[in-house]
Design goal:
CATH architecture of one domain in chain B: 3-Layer(bba) Sandwich
CATH topology of one domain in chain B: FAD/NAD(P)-binding domain
CATH class of one domain in chain B: Alpha Beta
Oligomer: heterodimer
Order of helices and strands of chain A: HHEEEH
Number of strands of chain B: 21
Strand content of chain B: 15-25%
Number of helices of chain B: 10
Number of helices of chain A: 3
Radius of gyration of chain B: 24 Å
Largest sheet of chain B: 8 strands, mixed
Structural class of chain A: alpha+beta
Helix content of chain B: 10-25%
Helix content of chain A: 40-55%
Distance between the termini of chain B: 24 Å
Strand order of the largest sheet of chain A: 1-2-3
Shape of chain B: globular
Distance between the termini of chain A: 70 Å
Largest interface: A-B, 20 and 25 residues
Radius of gyration of chain A: 21 Å
Strand content of chain A: 15-25%
Chain lengths: 70, 478
C-alpha cells in the first residue's frame, strides 16, 4: 500500500532534496563577494530623518549605525 | 413564513415594506420592522444553501485591482454572513468628522446617530456586551499607535440563527429563489410602484409595497440600480452619476516583516493609529497587525530534525524562499499586515458590463482603484509604525521596497469589504442616499448595508451595517 505523504515527509523530502545539496555546494565567502555584499547594502542605505535610516528595508535608529564612529 | 418562489404561483398581497437581500442588513431590518407590526416581504435571490448556479450570478468583469468579487460574497439565504470571520469593531466618532477627501464630503450624520444601536447590534452578533471591546496586546508604541480593541463574534451566521424565527413570523413573507430584476416607477418617476422578480426558470411576479429597501451589498446594489434603466436611462437614483462610484475596500498591505528583540516573544499585536496622527498627516485610519508565525509544530522524535533544518534555513537567510511551508519563520520573526481605510474616489467604481448573466441582465463591471491619498496613507502609516516599533524597544521592522520607494507600485490586497457605491450624502452631487438612507429623488426607496458608507474607517463593516440597519428600521417604523 502506498504510504500517504504527510507534512513531516513533505518537509523532510524538501529539505533533503533541495536545501541540503546547496549547503554542500556552498563555498566560503571570498573577500570580494563580502565587499560586494557590503556595497549592495550601502546602496540601499537611505537617511529617513534625523533619527532613522533604512538599510535594505530595515528601519534602524541612525545612532546604531554610527555607534563607534569618530 | 418562508416560501420557495419556484413553488409559489402568485404574490398578491400588498406589503408595508419590501426588503431585497437576506444578509445582515436585510434580516436585521426584517426582524426589527416586523416587531413594529409592519407587513414585510423579504426576498432572497439564491436558495437556502450554496449552489454554483446561484453563485455564478456574482461573476463580474474585473478591470481594475482584483478583489475576488465572485468569491468574497455569498448568494444564498443569510448572504455573506455565511462566511464572514466575525471581527467586530465600531466606528470611531472621528470617522464622522465631515472633512472633504478627494473633493468628496464625509458622513452627513454624527456617530451619535449610531451609538444608541451599539448594544443591540452586539446582541445580534452574539458579542459579549459586558466584556466590550478588548485588545490582544497591552503594548503601546510610544506615540500615535494604540492597541486596537475589538470583539469577536462566533461568527454569527444569520441563516442559522434567524431562519426559524423568520419562518415563524406571521408578518414576514420571505421568498427565496426570487431575484429582483427591475423597479417600476410611477408616472412622475418619484416613487417605486412595483418590484419585478424572477426565478431561474423565467417565472416572474411583481411585488407591491409602500416602501422598498435594497440590501444587496456594495456591488449588487449599484448593479441593480443601474440595470433599472427602462424608465430612467442612466438607472434609478443615478441622476448625478454617483451610483456605483466611490467603491472602497479596506487595504490589506503586506508592509514587510519584523523581528522582536525578545526572540522568545510569540505574541501577536494589533495597533490602531490615533486621531492626532491621522489628522496631522492628513491620511486615512489604520489597523496594523503584527503576527508571529514562528510556531513551528516541533515535537516528539521529529523535533530535533525540524529545528536543525529551520536553523540552517535561517542561517542561510533563505527563510523567505521557504515561506510556502506554513508556519515557517525564524525565531522572533513575523509579518505585518493591515486593515487601512481607503478614501472615496470617483474613479473606483462599479458600472455595467456588456456581458450578461443567465437572466440576460448586465453583469457588474468592477474597477477598483486607489488614489494618491491612499498611497500616502499606506507609506506614512508604515514608516511611522516602523519607527515607533523601534523606539518602543520591541524590535526592528523591515519594510517592503514599495514602502520606501515611490517609484515602485504598492502591493495590496482586500478584506472582502465592499463599501461606498451608494454613499450617504445630503448633497445629491456627492451621494446616492440621504442621511436617512433614502435614495435622493425617489420617495420610497432606501438602501441598507455598507454601500451607504460615506467613508469606511478602519473597522470591519458588519457591526456598523447592523447599527445602520437598526437605525433605518427605527426611522421607517416611526
Amino acid at each position: 500500500m502506498p504510504k500517504a505523504i504527510n507534512r513531516r515527509i513533505f518537509l523532510n523530502t524538501l529539505f533533503f532534496a533541495t536545501i541540503t545539496p546547496s549547503i554542500f555546494a556552498k563555498k566560503p565567502h571570498s573577500k570580494a563577494s563580502s565587499r560586494a555584499a557590503a556595497q549592495h547594502r550601502l546602496d540601499k542605505l537611505d537617511v529617513i530623518d534625523n533619527d532613522f535610516s533604512s538599510v535594505d528595508g530595515w528601519i534602524l535608529p541612525t545612532k546604531i549605525l554610527t555607534k563607534g564612529a569618530v | 413564513m418562508l416560501f420557495d418562489f419556484n413553488m409559489q404561483t402568485t404574490i398578491d398581497k400588498v406589503y408595508d415594506i419590501c426588503i431585497v437581500g437576506t444578509g445582515p442588513a436585510g434580516i436585521t431590518l426584517a426582524r426589527k420592522l416586523a416587531q413594529s407590526g409592519k407587513r414585510i416581504i423579504l426576498l432572497e435571490a439564491g436558495g437556502l444553501d450554496y449552489s454554483e448556479q446561484s453563485q455564478n450570478f456574482y461573476e463580474c468583469e474585473s478591470v481594475g485591482n482584483d478583489a475576488w468579487p465572485k468569491f468574497t460574497r455569498l448568494r444564498y439565504f443569510g448572504g455573506t454572513s455565511n462566511h464572514w470571520s466575525g471581527r467586530c469593531r465600531p466606528f470611531d466618532s472621528s470617522d464622522f468628522d465631515s472633512q472633504k477627501i478627494n473633493g468628496l464630503p464625509g458622513w452627513p450624520i454624527r456617530y451619535s446617530a449610531l451609538e444608541p444601536y451599539l448594544r443591540e447590534a452586539m446582541e445580534i452578533l452574539d458579542l459579549n456586551a459586558e466584556q466590550g471591546f478588548q485588545a490582544i496586546n497591552d503594548d503601546f508604541l510610544n506615540s500615535h499607535f494604540n492597541p486596537d480593541a475589538f470583539s469577536q463574534s462566533p461568527p454569527t451566521r444569520f441563516k442559522a440563527k434567524y431562519q426559524s424565527e423568520i419562518e415563524a413570523a406571521e408578518n414576514i413573507d420571505s421568498f427565496y429563489h426570487a431575484t429582483a430584476i427591475d423597479l417600476e416607477l410611477d408616472q412622475l418617476k418619484r416613487s417605486v410602484h412595483k418590484l419585478k422578480i424572477t426565478n431561474y426558470k423565467e417565472k416572474q411576479a411583481t411585488v407591491k409595497a409602500d416602501k422598498f429597501i435594497l440590501c444587496l451589498g456594495g456591488i449588487e446594489t449599484p448593479r441593480f440600480l443601474l440595470n433599472c434603466n427602462k424608465q430612467m436611462t442612466s438607472g434609478v437614483g443615478n441622476a448625478t452619476d454617483m451610483v456605483g462610484r466611490c467603491f472602497m475596500e479596506h487595504l490589506n498591505v503586506p508592509m514587510g516583516s519584523f523581528i522582536y528583540r525578545d526572540l522568545d516573544n510569540t505574541a501577536d499585536m494589533q495597533f490602531y493609529a490615533d486621531d492626532e496622527f491621522v489628522s496631522d498627516k492628513d491620511i486615512g485610519k489604520s489597523n496594523i497587525s503584527l503576527g508571529i508565525v514562528s510556531k513551528v509544530k516541533s515535537y516528539g522524535r521529529t523535533k530535533a530534525v525540524k529545528n536543525f533544518f529551520k536553523n540552517i534555513a535561517c542561517q542561510m537567510e533563505i527563510e523567505d524562499k521557504v515561506q510556502f511551508i506554513s508556519d515557517f519563520k525564524c525565531p522572533g520573526m513575523g509579518n505585518i499586515s493591515t486593515l487601512l481605510e481607503q478614501s472615496p474616489n470617483l474613479d473606483s467604481r462599479v458600472s455595467l458590463s456588456h456581458d450578461t448573466d443567465d437572466l440576460g441582465i448586465n453583469r457588474a463591471k468592477f474597477d477598483w482603484q486607489i488614489s494618491d491619498y491612499d498611497r500616502k496613507t499606506i507609506r506614512e502609516t508604515g514608516l511611522a509604525m516602523a519607527k515607533e516599533f523601534s523606539r518602543a524597544g520591541l524590535g526592528v521592522v523591515r519594510l517592503a521596497d514599495f514602502m520606501l520607494d515611490e517609484s515602485i507600485d504598492i502591493q495590496f490586497g482586500h478584506h472582502a469589504h465592499h463599501m461606498g457605491t451608494t454613499r450617504m450624502s445630503d448633497d445629491p452631487r456627492y451621494g446616492v442616499v440621504d442621511k436617512n438612507s433614502k435614495v435622493h429623488d425617489i420617495d420610497n426607496l432606501y438602501v441598507a448595508g455598507s454601500s451607504v458608507f460615506s467613508t469606511g474607517g478602519a473597522c470591519n463593516p458588519t457591526m456598523p451595517i447592523v447599527q445602520l440597519s437598526l437605525r433605518l428600521a427605527d426611522h421607517l417604523s416611526g
